[in-house]
Amino acid sequence: MLSKFGVTNLCHETRQRKVLSRSVHHLRHLRLSARRHLHVFAESAFAALGISNKLPAIRGYLTLLGAFVLVIGIAYVLIARGDLQRNADLILVGTLYKLAYAGTAIYYWAQGHLPHVVFGAIFGIADAVFFLLMAECWWTLKKRIKG
User: Fold this and answer.
1) Pair 55, 124: CB distance under 8 Å
2) pLDDT tens digits, one per residue of 7-32
3) C-alpha to C-alpha distance for 141 and 90, rounded to whole angstroms
4) Which phi and psi angles does 60 have, rounded to 5°?
5) Which end of the chain is more exposed for a tag (fewer CB within 10 A), N or C?
6) With a threshold of 0.85, does the pTM exceed it?
7) Per-residue pLDDT tens for 64-84?
8) What CA–CA distance (Å, rounded) separates 27 from 74?
């Protein structure tokens, strides 16, 4: 005979599995939709900036970069919703991603090799600011964990 606690746990576990199943289903649709939109978005974004001639011959690179940005954005949301102290290492990874983009964008902007100034002046500078904020967050968390 199942105790009330056993039945409650079984019902809770069943609900969790249903939620997880729905989430996986929605993520599959999001991933397929994102693939289609990232390909089209790159072309329209480059056209709006007047740099259609600078699109790479193999569009898959832009789609892959867009997919990385989407996944990293989802990770940032999940990290922010969770326990920041427990996620300190993930915050460090996100901080390093910001440094990587900002450093790369600003370097190529200074060399004059960006397809458009917006990639350095807006996105590069924004990521540099977010790098500083996230680094400060990580540093504060690390001090709090040790102390």
Assistant:
1) no
2) 444 444 455 455 545 554 555 555 55
3) 12
4) -60, -30
5) N
6) no
7) 888 888 888 888 888 888 888
8) 11
